[in-house]
Design brief:
binds 3-methyl-2-oxobutanoic acid, binds zinc ion, Double Stranded RNA Binding Domain, 17 helices, 3 domains, TIM Barrel, about 40% helix, alpha/beta, 8-stranded parallel β-barrel, 3-stranded antiparallel sheet, single chain
């Protein structure tokens, strides 16, 4: 059996299901390019049927990437067809179809009597649906993955029958998700070992593990799966995902690398790209990495106590089991300033994972000079945030031209905004409970649109009085939420930019949804 472990990254699909982590298509494309540099084996780019925006993101990534691109689909023809439509220009398309197999899922999701009356009848129907969905997906592509959703709580004998049927129908990868993060490592490992024994055709497919982190065991369970025969691990950058998240890619990869002595497995991941990828995902999703997070947290390589510092100075190995450089953490951070030239900026951006055309470079350099004028020292973190702003700027409908705020301890806060689009220049003023509220009210008045603000956070990107402030705001309109980010050395301006960005995303996607449905793409909301 091969010792090579395939890394299936689902940051753009399961990871994006993290509360508030919605990404726009341009951010997804950037992340997909970075995942390719990280050398993941498979990128799950989204769930095409779930919305026109998801469809478009999968299509755009599939069109340009050389990596295997997976699109998720329920075990339904409409989903599978839509996944294929989104993936059809990919060099290596994979349709990933799934179906709930535990009794809890079967009774909950297939309660209708057309699926059978007794549990036994319903199980039979689900078995047939598993076979049929894979067989249908196979008519579009040879690379088909089947997932038995909630496998972690599925009766093992029945699970073995399902997996056997999926492989008979042509599944080339069979995924065994611990969807609810319920299993213990020994239990999960045993399940994989049992499937290897019980499923007669198991050697025709790669066994994949997909573990959620509800009990903090996602990485441990994934490793137990590998030790018992799985050869693909599904995971996300920074462990983001539904509820408590998915198994974290960086922890899995580094565990396999650092403890090669006891497990002997290897991945194709370029671990030196881990830190850049983590920062990019955190920056774009707005999901902040906890400081003590293994591998990529701010404190992962910090030695605080005197004894530890002394030990590390004498010999790094006393308290470090891997070097920061091995995951791309560069301790000697280069600081840029207003006298830094275009070449210096270009080189630094490229080290941070951003590869820009001449035109993009010109715009980014101008934005850099504006920032460097306000802030003497520009750090890597500032550049990452700046690039987030620049990527977004390419696609905005409305741009904040100016913001004037009048606020103090004994006056009513008032804000005036000027907002420009291709067609018009809008100007409005408003009062509010505070300067931020007044700015939001003025923007709403100018655009004639008042979404619900679901969350609003401000943080400083770097330290010191001149630090860049980042505002992250999530708005909701109907079923969809949109996250906007804005940065400035002035947090009121950052907040107004974030709000306008979220509104822009909403407006862009509403337009795109309309265009796509006008093109009769047979896409339905799930
Ligand atoms: O957790 C899960 O079961 C999933 C499947 C769709 C693979 O994400
Ligand atoms: Zn999942």
């Amino acid at each position: 059996m091969s010792d090579h472990i395939l890394i299936f990254d689902t940051t753009l699909r399961d990871g994006e299901q993290s509360p508030g982590a919605s990404l726009n298509v341009y951010e997804k494309l950037e992340i997909a390019r970075q995942l390719a540099k990280l050398k993941v084996d498979v990128i799950e780019a989204g769930f095409p049927v779930s919305s026109p925006a998801q469809f478009e993101a999968v299509r755009r990534i599939a069109d340009e990437s050389d990596v295997i691109i997976a699109g998720l689909a329920r075990a339904k023809e409409i989903d599978i067809k839509s996944a294929y439509e989104a993936l059809k220009n990919s060099k290596h398309p994979r349709i990933h179809t799934f179906l709930g197999t535990s009794d809890i899922h079967i009774l909950g999701k297939f309660a209708d009597s057309r699926y059978g009356v007794s549990l036994a009848e319903k199980r039979k129907t689900v078995l047939k649906m598993s076979f049929d969905s894979v067989a249908y997906a196979k008519t579009f592509t040879k690379d088909v993955e089947f997932s038995a959703e909630d496998a972690g709580r599925t009766d093992i004998t029945y699970l073995a029958e399902i997996i056997e049927a999926a492989i008979d129908a042509g599944a080339t990868t069979v995924n065994i998700p611990d969807t609810t993060g319920y299993n213990f490592p020994a239990e999960y490992g045993f399940m994989i070992a049992e499937l290897k024994k019980k499923v007669s055709n198991i050697n025709k497919a790669v066994i994949s593990v997909h573990c959620h982190n509800d009990l903090g065991l996602a990485v441990a369970n994934s490793l137990a799966g590998v030790q018992n025969g799985a050869r693909q691990i599904e995971c996300t950058i920074n462990g983001i995902g539904e509820r408590a998240g998915n198994a974290s890619l960086e922890e899995i990869v580094m565990a396999l690398k650092v403890r090669k002595d006891i497990c002997g497995y290897h991945t194709g991941i370029n671990s030196e790209e881990i830190y850049t990828t983590s920062k990019m995902v955190s920056g774009f999703t707005g999901v902040i990495v906890q400081p003590n997070k293994a591998i990529v947290g701010d404190n992962a390589f910090a030695h605080e106590s005197g004894i530890h510092q002394d030990g590390v100075l004498k010999d790094k190995q006393t308290y470090e089991i891997m070097t920061p450089e091995s995951v791309g953490v560069n301790k000697t951070k280069l600081v840029l300033g207003r006298h830094s030239g275009r070449h210096g900026l270009k080189a630094r951006l490229s080290e941070l994972g951003y590869h820009l055309s001449d035109q993009e470079m010109q715009k980014s350099y101008e934005a850099f000079l504006v920032l460097a004028d306000k802030k003497k020292e520009v750090f890597d973190e500032d550049l990452r945030v700046l690039m987030g702003d620049e990527i977004y700027k390419e696609n905005q409908l409305y741009e904040l031209q100016y913001l004037h705020v009048n606020a103090g301890t004994d006056i009513i806060p008032t804000a005036t905004v000027q907002i420009k689009s291709d067609k018009e220049v809008l100007q409005e003023s408003s009062t509010g409970d505070g300067p931020v509220d007044a700015s939001f009210n003025a923007i709403e008045r100018a655009l004639g649109f008042k979404p619900t603000v679901e969350s609003y956070n401000v943080r400083s990107v770097t330290s010191g009085r001149q630090a860049l402030g980042e505002a992250i705001i999530r708005i909701r309109s109907g079923e969809n939420s949109f996250t906007g980010r804005g940065t400035s050395t002035d947090i009121i301006e950052a907040s107004a930019k974030a709000y306008l960005q979220a509104i822009n995303l909403y407006l862009t996607f509403s337009r795109r949804d309309l265009e796509l449905s006008e093109n009769n793409l047979e896409i339905k909301q799930v």
